[in-house]
Specification:
Low-confidence stretches: 1-20
Structural class: alpha+beta
CATH architecture: 2-Layer Sandwich
Distance between the termini: 46 Å
CATH class: Alpha Beta
Strand order of the largest sheet: 2-1-3-4-5
Order of helices and strands: EEHEEHEH
Largest sheet: 5 strands, mixed
Shape: globular
Number of strands: 5
Oligomer: single chain
Number of domains: 1
Mean pLDDT: 85
Length: 131
């Protein structure tokens, strides 16, 4: 049996999610529900200094939903010197953990590839007036 289901949320946020559900213990419907609910939860987390959520900013690089419902999230920050560097990963962890049916959540901050404004969705660009 497949050890984990990989849901990759590549930025910009409008990019399609890729789900590998072959041989998964979770049904396709459950994977879809979890993916939608996790994305919705991520959209509730805002960088305290930027009026856009972490998902639309393109800070979420990967979400892995495992067969046991544990979730691993790879995220980045706009800069290594981000004043919210201690808070944002905890906020992301708490938001994902609040989704019904999700098991333990681990959030890793990664720096490769480095974040740049091209990762933002059109929604974030509009909010930040970055056209």
């Amino acid at each position: 049996m497949n050890e984990q289901i990989k849901t990759q949320l590549d930025a910009p946020a409008a990019a399609a999610s890729i789900v590998d559900a072959k041989n998964s213990a979770l049904s396709a419907e459950e994977i879809s529900r979890l993916t939608d609910d996790i994305v919705a939860a991520l959209k509730t987390v805002y960088d305290p200094e930027i009026p856009a959520d972490v998902y639309e900013l393109g800070l979420i690089y990967k979400v892995d939903i495992k067969d046991d419902r544990a979730v691993d999230v790879d995220m980045t920050l706009t800069t290594p010197n981000c004043p919210a560097a201690q808070d944002l990963p905890v906020m992301v962890e708490n938001a994902v953990a609040s989704v019904a049916g999700v098991g333990p959540v681990k959030v890793a901050v990664v720096w490769d590839p480095p974040w740049d404004p091209s990762r933002m969705s059109d929604e974030a660009r509009l909010v930040l007036n970055m056209w």
